[in-house]
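Researcher: Before we compare anything, I want clean individual predictions. No alignment, no superposition, just each chain on its own. First chain goes here; please echo the sequence and then give the structure tokens.
Model: Echoing the first chain and its structure:
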Amino acid sequence: MALYDDRPDSPTYQKLNVLYFSDRKRGIVRIPAGVFHAVQNVGHVDASFINHPTRAYNHAQPDKYRLPLDTPLIPFSFAPTLGG
């Protein structure tokens, strides 16, 4: 999981944090608004990611914004997909 803080008033503004989880090292992550995040399975077996938003998505007034994975705004690049 990669997290990039885009909150100007945050002490971790423009900082990148990369977290690794596994079947032996599970985790719960609370992601504040304004922190871009993405997940990639880097293992050799299937993995699960469960998202629990604080409120239902509102299509009329979206509160979620997407950037392309290769955006130059975030100093991170996912590894090529394993297995082809």
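Researcher: Okay. Second chain, same rules.
Model: Second chain and its structure:
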Amino acid sequence: ALNEGLTTTEPSEAFTKELVMKRAREVVLLADSSKAGKVSFARAGSLEHLHTVITDAGINPKFAKELTKKGIKVIKT
């Protein structure tokens, strides 16, 4: 699901989220591990704009490694 980028269940928010990410100097995503690899209805941004993911220790290690390979810092709490 990495190729899908970031998605959301709220289409009305998707455009705004993507626009903000494109203009930000640094983008930090806070999401629990159950969201990793899940694809929702509306695309809300590209991984190329994401710098850091903060999540819980339950994230799939393979998924976290793929993010790291893309230059995204993964912080597990």
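Researcher: What stands out in the second chain?
Model: Residues 53 and 74 are 5 Å apart (CA to CA). Additionally, The chain is about 30% helix and 25% strand.
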